[in-house]
Amino acid sequence: MAPSVTSVDTGPHTRKETAKYEPAYRWLRWLCRSITLALGAASTWAVRSTMYPDGVSYLDIGDAFWRGNWHAAVNAYWSPLYPLVLGLFLKLFRPTIRWEYPLVHLVNFVMFVVGFLCFEFFLTTFLEQQGRGHARNSETEMNLPDWAWLVVGYFVFVASSLLLITMSFVSGDMIVAAVIYLASALISKLRRGDSTWRTWAVLGVVLGVGYLAKAVMFLMSVGFIAVAAATQKTKAKKIRIAAISGLFFLLAAGPFAFLLSVVKGRPTFGDSGKINYLMNVGTTQFFIPHEPGSKHPVHQLSALPHAYEYSSPIAGTYPLWYDPSYWHEGIRPHVDFKRQIRTALLAGAECAWIAFSPFVGLGISVAILFLYLVAPSIGRCFSTASRQWELWVPALSGIALYSLVVIEPRYVAAQFCLLWIVGFSGVRLPASAISRRMITGAVLAVVLFVCLATTWQISQAVNGRMFAQKDIATPECVEVAEALVANGIRPEDKIAVLSNWLFPSRQGAYIARLAHVGIIAEARPDEYWAADRETRSELRSEFSRAGAKAVLTYKPLGSEDGWTRLGGTNYYVQFLTSN
């Protein structure tokens, strides 16, 4: 049996010491790898036809990048790295309508594999750091043995990646998670004495790449660099690490931040934080803000109270979500302490749900709590875990930053992964056969829980129950898009829609993306069908003058000539000009 791990020692270690445990349980490592990749592939296949609102904008921006339309591609709300990767795959493979969304999820699986490799690097670094304390092991105390660390590490990664980030959500969150794992591994290396300017420089570049994946990493990177500097004992080294890491971070992140600032005419590294604050802490509407300070209010049509057109100057499948920074320009966030406290409480409740939900982290959190409660001293467990401050300080800082605005599981997945690992590092039990059995039971419980939760999630998608969610695209979108094309709609055409809310309500934007057409106007279906014939005719004329070729709706609420059913679905189209 491999020796059990113990507390962190910050002294140097030799290649020979690393070799003592690196090859150990190689068969177990490969088994865990195989299960991880199999669950990731199965999750990807189960959601291969899905799409989310953010994904539509990412795909549009990716197209703009690879067409060379830089003006449309530079966006102050959506970060550039993920759409660049998506656009590259679309350009290389040129998928048909039926295969576009599956190709996107194949890209997500590639991101999952990259994140997995980065996590493996972190886990190896972490185990090397843990293993260097074997010589100081007490004969009366034990913690997780090496085999348990391997199993716990891999399955905590599976939980954070497949249950929190998920394979269904089309976003750059998996890239951000990979960056956090890499940065954490590099900081761990710095703490144990592997402190060279190359490590400092790589840390800065990695964090800069994280910013290009998500703007919030600009602020989170400050915390990572500060923690990296704090790992050093001398003031001179602290300053050198901060300076070199900061310099290389700016070299990686600075050009895009500078470009954004030039485009916006003001210093900025992105407007996503401000806009999310307006929408989540404030009361600003997501798609059509009505605040008086807006510099670019959405044009309201005269025929109906809630009818709008937005044919210019923003392009994309759904211009209101392609660049929210344009439509929210000029609206200033105002701090409302009551709403801020409410937001913080909701964030706390969301974190509690992540940690203790039977569908997310319950099995992992309960396993940690169980091992702490059966330990002779809970205080010693917490004290030992707290020594991993280079991991939990950036993790908690990231969660706190999100708590000011909004927390979703995918935003904080990597942070919870690190916190769970820190939690397991604090386990201290008496050295006995009973303790070994309790550790074995807790580890197997984690494996069982993660496998069951992931399998349940996959079965929900396979059986179609996931499609009951309001904001997810369904396979029906493919049939509707193909029917639109068969009826004469061409790529780059413009359409209007009758919809209560473009993404959750009957998925108009998901369909438009597949047909490669742009939505430039909308009205509410209940208002449209309640209006008289003259008003409806006037609205269609306004749609046509805005540039719309047709109107798309779901289940017309009244009778009217000119509507064509799209395939065997409940979607209908009415052409405003001859096709």
Overview of the molecule:
The protein is mainly alpha-helical. It folds into two domains: 30-130 and 142-261 and 339-462, no CATH class; 476-575, D-Maltodextrin-Binding Protein, domain 2 (3-Layer(aba) Sandwich), CATH 3.40.190. The protein has 24 helices and nine strands. The chain has helices at residues 15-21, 26-46, 53-67, 70-73, 81-93, 97-131, 146-165, 173-191, 197-213, 217-230, 235-264, 272-281, 319-322, 324-327, 337-356, 362-373, 378-386, 389-403, 413-425, 433-462, 476-486, 508-515, 525-530, 533-546; strands at 141-142, 299-300, 307-309, 429-430, 494-498, 518-523, 550-554, 564-565, 571-575. The strands form two sheets. The chain has a seven-stranded mixed sheet, sandwiched between helices. Strand 8 (564-565) and strand 9 form a beta hairpin. The relative contact order is 0.12. Mean pLDDT is 90; it is low at 1-21 and 133-137.
Broad structural category: mainly alpha
Low-confidence stretches: 1-21, 133-137
Q: Distance N terminus to C terminus?
A: 75 Å
User: How would you state the average pLDDT, rounded?
Assistant: 90
What shape does the CA trace take? globular
Number of strands: 9
The major beta sheet can be summarized as: 7 strands, mixed
Question: What is this structure's SSE topology?
Answer:
Layout: H1 15-21, H2 26-46, H3 53-67, H4 70-73, H5 81-93, H6 97-131, E1 141-142, H7 146-165, H8 173-191, H9 197-213, H10 217-230, H11 235-264, H12 272-281, E2 299-300, E3 307-309, H13 319-322, H14 324-327, H15 337-356, H16 362-373, H17 378-386, H18 389-403, H19 413-425, E4 429-430, H20 433-462, H21 476-486, E5 494-498, H22 508-515, E6 518-523, H23 525-530, H24 533-546, E7 550-554, E8 564-565, E9 571-575
Parallel strand pairs: 5-6, 5-7
Antiparallel strand pairs: 1-4, 2-3, 3-6, 7-9, 8-9
Helix pairs in contact: 2-6, 2-7, 2-20, 3-5, 5-6, 6-7, 6-8, 7-19, 7-20, 8-9, 8-10, 8-19, 9-10, 9-11, 10-11, 10-18, 16-20, 17-19, 18-19, 21-22
